[in-house]
Amino acid sequence: MSSFASLALKPELLSNLESLNYTEMTPIQAQSLPAILAGDDVIGEGKTGSGKTAAFGLGILQHLEVKRFRIQTLILCPTRELAEQVAAEVRKLARAIHNIKVLCICGGMPFGPQIGSLEHGAHIIVGTPGRIEEHLRKGSLVLNNVKNIVLDEADRMLDMGFQETLDTILGFAPKQRQTLLFSATFPKEIESIAKRVMRSPTRIRVESQH
Ligand code: ADP
Ligand code: MG
């Protein structure tokens, strides 16, 4: 077993993990976090419940500059429910970082208020592909300062037909970035999108639940 304390995480992240009772890393966290923290592109394959959110969430939060009030991270999820769960988990992991803003931008919600929220700014956006693409095309969302992008549940996003949308979204992001892809399964389509949008990714595969 490896503990989070073995990682060079910011002290406020470590103490918050302690207060959340996250002591030991799950296998996917133990295997992917060193590469994520080193800034590598990572493909993480692990079943539901394996702790993928904290794997990418801690990597993002470690690199986030809270004083720079710019969108530094975009997390894409297949559905609004999943995006809301991820946003809640990231906020929980970020509790000890003051003034951090995590904004959820999903389909099925009125468009106008989202434009207002985006104008107010955020550090991290969690959203669903269709709506994120719409905001990018309209110019209400700009990704020029994005340092990392997460494709969460990538297999489900591809199943839902979001392949082209994902390509379009990634086309709006800086080339110089970290791309993290998480998935429960690894069909051929994932391999092909990874080839297009990632730079020599480290691939991590975890069999068991915990
Ligand atoms: P996945 O995305 O792989 O399906 P989640 O990231 O949603 O899994 O995590 C599943 C559950 O495990 C969540 O309730 C989360 O709070 C919890 N969890 C994640 N990592 C740890 C850990 N290291 N220690 C304790 N609980 C954890
Ligand atoms: Mg998940």
From TrEMBL:
Motif Q motif mapped to chain: 2-30
Domain Helicase ATP-binding positions: 33-204
Domain DEAD-box RNA helicase Q: residue ranges: 2-30
GO cellular component assignments: cytosol
Keyword line: ATP-binding, Helicase, Hydrolase, Nucleotide-binding
Signal peptide positions on this chain: none
Molecular-function annotations in GO: ATP binding; hydrolase activity; nucleic acid binding; RNA helicase activity
Stated family: Belongs to the DEAD box helicase family.
Protein name per Swiss-Prot or TrEMBL: ATP-independent RNA helicase DbpA
Organism: Marinagarivorans cellulosilyticus
